[in-house]
Amino acid sequence: MRREDSPPFAATTLMPLQNPVFRSIWTATQISSLGWLVQSVAIGWLMATISASDLMVALVQAASTLPAFFLSILAGAIADSFSRRGVMLAGHCLIALASTTLALAVGLGFVSPWLILGLGFLAGCGFALNDPAWHASVGDILEKREIPAAVTLMSVGYNIVRSVGPALGGVILAFLGPLAAFALAALSDLVPLSAVLRTKWQVRSSPLPRERMATAIHDGMRFTAISSEIRVAIVRATLFGLSSISILALLPLLVRDQLAGGPLVYGVLLAGFGTGAFVAGISNGYLRRIATQERLVTLASVACATCCLLLAVTSSVTVAAIALAIGGAGWVVTWTGTDVCVQLASPRWVVGRTLSIYYALTYGGMAAGSWIWGAVAQNYSLTWALEGAAVALLLVAAAGKVLPIRLWEESDQGAADFIPPELALTLRPRSGPIVVKVEYSIPEPNIEAFLRCMRERRRVQTRAGARNWTLQRNLQNPTLWTETFRTPTWTDYLRLNHRLTLADREVAERLAALQADGSSPHLALSIERSTSPASGSEVQPVPFVSRP
């Protein structure tokens, strides 16, 4: 584990831009984000003008984020099992289709609140497909040491656009009308589609057959549940999203009802939010050097709570813009920190699934938060909603005492080389179940250290696919210990070993160092055979025993 008061990697923020593939897709993504932000301003204001329901206005945010809750886990499994580039193309096609349809509907004068929400949902489906595949592809395109810089650069790039896009959207909306805003968005969505089509990158292929979708999803969820760093980051991010989305979801109502402004004011305030996020983004490396990740996330929640309180009491556009800049800074510090934590704690074989679970729960939290705070604003008041969100954000900050975010491990998450053992029997890929036994000879002085390593070994093996893991001590020879687990098939056994990273192999090396007389652990592989009459077979398991 790295010291949390030191910079995680030596890579500078701009280093990933030297890679032409990353640079091309990153640049195209910023252009698309500019169009999306212009469209978001137009959608938010259009909904506020054609619907008298405060809840419908707040649901604009929910419509685009809810698909990630339902689809991201499946999209992550698809991204880990199929071409991530192909998944990105499919996602961008859906986004472009939604934007083009909305532009045509506005141009033909056929627009309604439910149509806006429906097309927002369709675009959200595109984002649910694209985002896990794109973020997982960063580790394929770049070296591991460049990943923190790349994640920060992606966040900074979006927030540079956020500082310009909303204001531009307000100007276009005020002077050219919503049709121009939607047309610009539709054109900008074609840019990343073209960039992904033009570029290709090398991905390490697996020598094993592709997993079934149900198995891939199950394995991703199991890995995420067992990995404490990822689990804590997801919980904190979900709670933060549930509370902090109130800032963006209620902003159109704040402009319309409390500030008595128009689309230009709405765009300027969103630009203030983006400016604060941009400043925090470019300062991220410095902030990580002077404070722990947990301290940064806690302060970010306090900053967003301050933003909500200021918005609840002010009627000044200037004060609101300053408050939103504070909130934007807290927003980007939290999301960058949790995203990097999940990325670097995930091996390449499962990174698409862990990121998709992260996005599913955080976007689900934001969708639920949009509905909750919109309902509070409609049934009580806008002030009550903002003050309630501020209290919730302070509770999220306090949650760090129970669920602290730990900095990622520096150990290598790349796959270790694995050579399958030679067998005395010929097995088919679906042969199984396979029983694995590893026998250790541990002298009495090393037992405490051995048990500590075995707790880590159980976590490593289980999250890679081991079933029914147990550890037994021989009653007749207490120095002998046996680790036992199962895999459903021979292919699953091979897949488990291909999934083990270099960091995971270090646990096995520490266990080997604890062996008596410097000997090596003994590995025995068996295949289970039923002895029931119905099976028609009386064959006993035939083991393969490794050489010492």
From the N-terminal CA to the C-terminal CA, the straight-line distance is: 32 Å
Task: Compute the average pLDDT.
Answer: 82
Order of helices and strands: HHHHHHHHHHHHHHHHEHEEHHEE
Strand fraction equals 5-15%
The tally of beta strands, per DSSP, is: 5
Radius of gyration from the CA trace? 26 Å
**Helical amount among residues, as a percent range?**
55-70%
Strand order of the largest sheet: 2-3-1-4-5
Largest sheet: 5 strands, antiparallel
Which stretches of 5+ consecutive residues score pLDDT under 50?
A: 1-11, 536-542, 544-548
Helix/sheet category: mainly alpha
Number of helices: 19
Indicate the overall shape.
elongated
Keywords: Cell membrane, Membrane, Transmembrane, Transmembrane helix, Transport
Pfam families: MFS_3 (PF05977)
Domain Major facilitator superfamily (MFS) profile: 21-412
Biased composition (Polar residues): 528-538
Word description of this protein:
This protein has a five-stranded antiparallel β-sheet. By secondary structure, the chain is mainly α. It has helices at 20-50, 54-81, 84-107, 113-141, 147-175, 178-188, 190-198, 213-226, 228-249, 251-258, 263-282, 284-290, 293-313, 317-344, 351-379, 382-398, 447-464, 490-499, 502-513; strands at 434-441, 467-473, 480-487, 522-527, 544-545. Helix 1 runs antiparallel to helix 2 (54-81) and helix 9 packs parallel to helix 13.
